[in-house]
Amino acid sequence: LLVGNSAGKLEYNRAGAVSGTTNFNDIMVHEPSGSVRSLNEGLVSGELKGLLQLRDVDTAQAAEQLGELTAKLADELNRAHNASTAFPAPSVLEGRNTGMSEITALSGFTGTTTIAVVNAAGVIQNSAEIVFNGGTMTVNGVAATPATFLSVLNAQVPGLNASFADGKLKLEATGGNGVAIADDATTPSSKAGRGFSHFFGLNDLVSTSGVSNYETGMTGASQHGFAPGQTVSFRFSDSNGVKIRDIEVAMPAGGGTMTELLAHLNDPVNGAGRHGTFSMNAHGEVTFTGRGSPPAQMSVVNDRTSQTPSGVSMSQLFGLGGTRTARSGSFEVRSDIVSNPSNLALGRLDLTVPAGSPALSAANGDGARLLAGAGDFSTRFGAAGGVSGTTSTLSRYASDMAGTIGAKSNLTKSAASGASALLNEASSRRSSFEGVNLEEELVLMTTYQQAFNASARLIQAASDMYDTLFGMVR
Q1: Measured between alpha carbons, how far is 38 from 27 in angstroms, rounded to an integer?
Q2: 8 Å CB contact between 401 and 162
Q3: H helices of 35-107, where?
Q4: Residue 239's beta-bridge partner residues?
Q5: Residues 406-415: contacts with CB within 8 Å, 24+ apart?
């Protein structure tokens, strides 16, 4: 009866029910007249509004912050683990999916790193010192480019097989030997703040099935790898979560650079330029800034893009929409370390030892000290959950996040207490105005009863007087 003589219908697709969907979807109301609207429309207060605010804003913000904290915790543990090696050194180092092509992934490094093949005793058999210089590098002094790096590396290090497939770098030693990597102490390798081994995740301690680090290290000239015509659908909503518009954007034709992709996304006609701006910072991280006051919010409804050769979508590669929130549940300690803790990288490769001496030994515990101090290393946190990006330690960020959630909880409790007190006061005033005071009514009833009795006696006296007068006339 609230919507007419016929029943209305509520419809909801759970998060993840549609390919590429990572955010909560609108609850749609199908009215008897045939019109369809969001349940959010017109809701400004009440329990339903509060529940939707909790689902779409408060909990989502907390989950996004938790995802950022979890991702950075995994990243710092992996930073320490990639700077170290187990003893004996593992025969295979296979990296994570970078979401990039070989040339894009190998471009942009600076500094120096060494890849060594060591025997079971930790003695270096062959090695390569790699000096990076942005778009070029040298391997033991031999010039190389990102396109020729692997072939030059394999030629310079007998007993090593380096390959790149599906966005992953793989180093494999032959002849029962192992592979170890060490950065130069003075000028360590670096791309987007990560060393060579760390960037590719060659010796990660914590693994994940998806992309968890959105500082890609890409530049405007980097190839994005998405084929022309592939589409991604964005939803733009106001600050109350009410949908403004859904826009489907197709990947542009052209050279395939990040500059071209960002320009297309920001196009007001073919892209999302009417509602905000996509931009990329110096670390290769792509973010969206909404227009308006308050600014429009963006989420990903459907993503049909697939990067070549990694296979990841654009929203996964850059952490767009609700992708960042989903990270916290995807991490796990590497399975071979869980089954055999001796595979932990607790030592470090020593490049200063004389030739023929062990550069790696079981007695070295430098890697363990790095792991123990991972929580005290200052790292860059991206903007998450309404909190601006900052540089902080893991411990400090965790305490700040807990404090923020606690402050929001106390503020909400205070607001609820105030609203309850206001309701009670309003109800009391209404009752005093509309209600019945029994004592007052009893007094009034007694007064009216006495007045009625007096009036009855007066009428009776008048009647008796008239009867007497009529009797005298007769």
Answers
A1: 6
A2: no
A3: 47-53, 59-82, 102-106
A4: none
A5: 408/58
In angstroms, how far is CA 445 from the centroid of its own chain? 70
Q: Using CA atoms, how far apart are residues 164 and 127, in angstroms rounded to an integer? A: 19
DSSP line for 103-125: HHHHTTEEEEEEEEEE-TTSBEE
Residues 6+ apart with CB under 8 A from 373: 80
Reading the block at residue 370, the tokens are 């790095």
**Tokens 């998806």 found at:** 210
Check residue 325 and report its DSSP letter: G
429: tokens are 């005033």
| pTM (predicted TM-score) | 0.80
Identity (one letter) of the amino acid at 400? Answer: D
Pairing of strands 276-280, 286-290: antiparallel
- Amino acid, single-letter form, for residue 329: G
From 374, 363, 398, select the one nearest 384 (Cα to Cα): 398
Q: Where are the domains of the chain?
A: 9-59, 69-217+328-377, 219-313, 436-474
Residues (pLDDT < 70) of the chain are 1-4, 15-24, 240-241
Measured between alpha carbons, how far is residue 253 from residues 159, 219, 224, 466 in Å?
43, 19, 12, 114
Q: What are phi and psi of 118, to 5 degrees?
A: -120, 150
- Please write the tens of the pLDDT for every residue from 308-357: 889 999 999 998 877 787 787 789 999 999 999 999 999 999 999 999 99
